[in-house]
Amino acid sequence: PRATIGLTGLATMGRNLARNIARHGHTIAVHNRTEARTTALVEEFGDEGDFVPSASMADFVASIERPRAIVIMVKAGAGTDAVIDELVPLLDEDDIVVDGGNAHFTDTLRRQRALEERGLHFVGMGVSGGEEGALNGPSIMVGGSDHAYERLAPVLESIAAQVDGTPCCAHVGPDAAGHFVKMVHNGIEYADMQLIAESYDLLRHVGDLRPAEIAEVFREWNGGDLESFLIEITATVLDHVDADTGRPFVDVVQDAAEQKGTGRWTVQSALDLGVPVTGIAEATFARSLSGHTDQRAAAREVFATDPDPVEVERDAFVDDVRAALYASKVVAYAQGFDQIAAGSDEHDWDVDPGAMATIWRGGCIIRAQFLDRIKEAYDAEPDLTTLLTTAYFADAVKQGEAAWRRVVATAVAAGVPTPAFSSSLAYFDALRREHLPASLIQALRDNFGAHTYARTDRPGTFHTAWAEDLTEKEISA
Ligand code: NBP
After folding, report:
1. What ipTM was predicted for this assembly?
2. By the 8 A CB rule, do 69 and 142 touch?
3. Residue 224 to residues 32, 334, 368, 369, Cα–Cα distance (Å)
4. How much is the pTM?
5. By CB atoms within 10 Å of each CB, which of 80, 171, 338, 454 scores lowest?
6. Per-residue pLDDT, 424
7. Which family does the similarity line name (predicted)?
8. Cα(203)–Cα(212) distance, rounded to whole angstroms?
């Protein structure tokens, strides 16, 4: 055996990851169900490093040094289970199986338990950055045992994106911690993109800016505290003109957004954990809504009248939208980090949120200057209650608050939907309020269902005899 590590599954992601590993001087065994992909990889890129190709799974396994480290990079779900089933009988005690696909974290929990029973290590590894990241440096979120991480670290830390000399790769925690954090990362990506899309919509349809002018605005924003990969590529996309029609590219793309499911998973998990990730949820629902083209057509028929146009002063409006975008983004990230903390508590993962901000600074889609501020906030206060109230973010929100309200009010008046802006503002208002109408909810629940309530003036659990004499009974002190 001569390979340091093996990788099976050589489609877009696996092939680029294998090249990245080879380019960093590691001898890598490569395999794919359909041999043609393996042959093509070695033919096209064999001179980039030391590849050990195998046609069969048995030869592939035999070509890797023990204890083996084998990365699976195939279609998530049934594909991953099929590869694990084929691989496991060929392995020896202490070997490490790494799933680098986008697995649901509950699948990772199940696989981890099954492999542990057989004396093997299972590592759920979240890889972010798409095709380009896999080749040139992804952000890598690793779950599993300390032992497994130590074995993998030299390879993974060398191939990850590097920011200020720090690899964007971390041991997130045991078993499914890596895949869980990758899922929330994708959810945050949904929220980020929705906020950008709402900003564009407002600038275009209320601010009356043309796509090329909006590209210029985004380029300018990218020079400030909004600096990020997504803001940068928004400028690129908005500048692009369709070659066939000469129209702005954004106008020839159908307005029905797609999703592969990680946003939905994030929201489902957040519901289970009881964490209000309203930004991610609205972003996910907004994509669903855009895809309901029949309902949209029906509604256009009936309600096609536009509200009266809203007059805005262009430069001031652009500044307001920037402030609203930033404040809403702070909320969306605060919510995402709340979900990571809740998942970590629920599963005893002991995730360090500051470390997540650190490894998202490079390689992944949500990479941004902003993440340095999040890391600083967690460094200063590791057990913080919410990111929103830490000095830097609280200041940003306070400074942007008035603009945020103006933008949401203007959007409502103009009939431009801003679900992520609006819900983030509602979340902020709910958090900062002295009293919430949840008191009325509790009273109603006690009235129709005897669900009991707590009082503001003394401890205990109470129920009011609504159908009888309206006396209050203390249920327990
Ligand atoms: P795909 O998700 O398109 O999967 C194709 C690969 O899976 C091929 O190697 C194929 O082998 C293999 N495969 C399938 Br399908 N069923 C199999 C089975 N039953 N047994 C063995 N192999 C099987 O590849 P991808 O786009 O490179 O993504 C790989 C993983 O990385 C996925 O989990 C994906 O969610 C994740 N991911 C993707 C991105 C991205 O930007 N694309 C980013 C981050 C993570 P074949 O060649 O024989 O058909």
Report:
1. 0.97
2. no
3. 45, 20, 11, 9
4. 0.96
5. 454
6. 98
7. Belongs to the 6-phosphogluconate dehydrogenase family.
8. 11
